[in-house]
Every structure is written in structure tokens, then in C-alpha cells.
Amino acid sequence: LKKALIIFALGLGCQAAFAQKTFTAKNGAEFPANEIGISYGGINFPEFANVLGGALGEAFTFGQAEIEDMTCSGCISLEYLRYVTPYIGVGVTAAAETFHLTFKDSKDPGNSVMMLAMPTFKASWFRKEHVGMYSKASVGACLAASKNDTNVIFAFQATPVGIEAGSTSIRGFAEFGIGFQSLLCAGVRYCF
User: Fold this and answer.
1) How many of the other CB atoms lie within 10 Å of CB of 6?
2) Can you name the residues that pair with 180 across neighbouring β-strands?
3) Which residue among 43, 62, 92, 101 is buried most deeply as judged by most CB within 10 Å?
4) C-alpha of 175 from chain center
5) CA-closest candidate to residue 160, choices 187, 179, 141, 188
């Protein structure tokens, strides 16, 4: 696995070193062809499922399975995108989030972790030198693991509206979407 990761990283490095470095948009602005972003978001499908599952568990046991503590860390995401045209980017998104659910009178807290890996497609539909708007879609797999169980499930994120602002190399962004990353997320991206 270590050798495979090293070969993958070298391949990405070679691809970036020999590929086109910038694109010129229709408005004449020049943009870097690669970007790496990190973001934080909350209110996603797994959080909703934990809240709903805990509430239903309490309701169907008539209060016998009373929730004592329920917390979610929020989803932290890392993303790499490569623009293949001035307006279309493709890449990969990795994300992680932890959950904690404890029922009253239970000695075993329900801790779990979710890890995502999803190919990503981004379409920039408004692109100026210091501000841009885009839509994004990701589909992939989620590894959901707890003390007693591990599952791989289908994961997705659909972002109809994202806005970014800043310089051509460093940009802050906010996204409104639905799926496994978040309903709302914000972050920063480095473009090179």
C-alpha cells in the first residue's frame, strides 16, 4: 500500500509538472489549472441519520432507550481538482467525520467514524479574476466504521451553488449542497 501511494503521488506530480499550467477564460482572465482545497461543513446525511435514528430509537422504546449525548464533529474535506478546460475541473475529494451517540444507562458509547473518497466534477459558470461561482458533483464510497461494525456504502455530494473570492492563487469559498459532505461548508483553496 505504501508503494502504491508513493507511485500515485509521483504520477500526480509528473502530470502537474508537464501539463498546461494556466487557462485563459473568455473574459481574458488567466487562471491556474490546478487547485487544492480544504473545507469544513455540517448538517449532512450521516448527521441527519444519526439524529433521526436516535430519536426513533427513543420513541419506539417509549423512552427506555433515552439519548444522553449525541455529537458530530462536522465534515472535514480535502479536495484536488485539475481543470481540463477553463470552466470544467475534475478531481477527487476525501473527507472524514466522527460521531458520538450515548444512551442513558449504557456503558458502551456509540462512537463511529465516516471516511469518504469521491471523484469530483466542477463546472465554473461565472469566472472573473477575483470572484467565481460554480456547481459541483461528487459520487463515491463511504467507509462507516464503529466498534462493532464496518460498512462501505454509496456516498454523494451535489453542490448547486458555490461561490469563491480572493486572488488567482488563494481563494476563500462557501458552498450550499446536499449529501455526505454538508448542507453548508466553507474553506480555502490554493490554485497553482
Assistant:
1) 10
2) none
3) 101
4) 10
5) 179
Task: State the virtual CA torsion across 138, 18, 12, 123 in degrees, nearest 10.
Answer: -10
Cα–Cα dist 192/15, whole Å: 13
Euclidean distance between the first and the last CA atom of the chain, given in angstroms as a whole number: 28
What is the chain's length? Answer: 192
Cβ neighbours for 34, distance < 8 A, ≥ 6 positions apart: 16, 80, 81, 82, 83, 191, 192
Q: Tell me how far apart the alpha carbons of residues 24 and 27 are, in angstroms, rounded to a whole number.
A: 8
* pLDDT tens sequence across 96-130: 999 887 777 776 667 889 999 999 999 999 999 89
d(CA 133, CA 164): 6
